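Lab meeting prep.
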Amino acid sequence: MPPIIFKDDDFHGHDHQQDDPMVITVEIKNYAVKKVLVDQGSYVDILYWATYQKLQLLDTAMVPYDEPIYGFSGEQVSTHGYIDLYTVFREGTQTKTIPIRFLIVDAPTSYNVLLGRPSLNTLGAVVSIPHLAMKFPSPSGDILTVHCDQRLARECYMASLRPQLPIQQTNHIKRPPDSDIALSSEDLDPRVGRDVRLEPVEETSPLELPNGHSINLGTVFEF
């Protein structure tokens, strides 16, 4: 496999003076899902409940996991369960597909999906924030690059700074050009409140991952 390196031309943003989060697009169930936050500090992959519904996934497709989780100040965040979904990462016509076990969380957020360490490790991804790019080996051994959408990254960040105002915008779930799956009408997704990042504090329960490993998922979390 070729070495993974980053060069100046890997930066595809519009503003080099940046400290933006890594926000990308992935494909799930034949939908292109934007506003996907790559969070190397998260030990779990999260699919938000509003996104789950807009993907038209059946409730029966998830494994129940309904223990609530709590923030530092006692805020309660509801979980609905978890689901295994094949997720596609694309550069042009080349793709890499991996199974991801998503925890389904009902929480106010600017994002549709949060990708944590389990999926990034399975993908073999290396993230460079200065280049706003993520690289990983393809099944054929080539190195693929996924670029951050800097405009959407800033839109999400600014939305999280205004918790007092309801934010109405499209959910950024679209059908890929080569998909034959019909897309429902584009919904408005009101997002109120601040983005949450979940970290375990005390009690945990095991959650099995598709690769055979397991993580201890906290039932008490800190924001």
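Slide two material, second protein:
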Amino acid sequence: MDLKGLITKNQCECLGGTDDYPLEHVFTDGGNSLKSDFDDQLILSVNFNQSIKIHAIKLKAPEKFGPKTLKLFINQIATMSFEQAESCPAVQDMIVDPKDLAGNLINLRPVKFAVVNSIQIFIINNQSGSGSTQLDYIGFIGSPLPAGNNSISTDVDIEGIKQHKQKIINLLKSDRPPKINDMEEYFWTGYSPKTLGELYDKRHELLSIIHDSNLFAQKIAEIVQQHHLDAATENKKAT
């Protein structure tokens, strides 16, 4: 199903766009366009009023100036800066075929987008590699998650945790919990400061099992899963 009815428009944000072509235009097919300002890069941050699963996206744009290279992130606590979006590993990287800018379904990796409260899309360049990027429409295809859904476990990348094991250990061995102003150092996790704080609070338990990479990764995944589930519950209460 089309998820546009679940978008919380007043909590969405665009970086790099012109004032004359705001983000809200592109949620309506056939409406006005969104255009980048100084170069061809844009960051779109789209919030939903409940937890959802996203299967695919739709893009409509001119073939010459439509988005080409994308990085997709989910469940960020705030809109990422361009520097953060460039340096952080994405949930999914994507090269858009020009023919798909006619509104064709662009499938996402289902496991990566199984539990989504917000999605951030970094448009790195357009099809021509110069000029202003134009986006006429973006749509999200998927389904809302039922209340109390526990499938959030699929949202945690166990292999990614193993890959960044040493960085996580360095965080746990720090003499103070992470702060907002040094989050850039830990943005590789894709987790919010609150989640990282929870990992830090359980540092003694986690450090005692670092010899077993599988157990270490699974325990971190459990903590992250619980945080995401709690956050989804709070978001639902707020709406």
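Talking points for slide two:
Strands lie at 13-15, 34-35, 42-60, 67-74, 92-95, 102-107, 116-126, 134-135, 137-144.
The chain has a mean pLDDT of 81.
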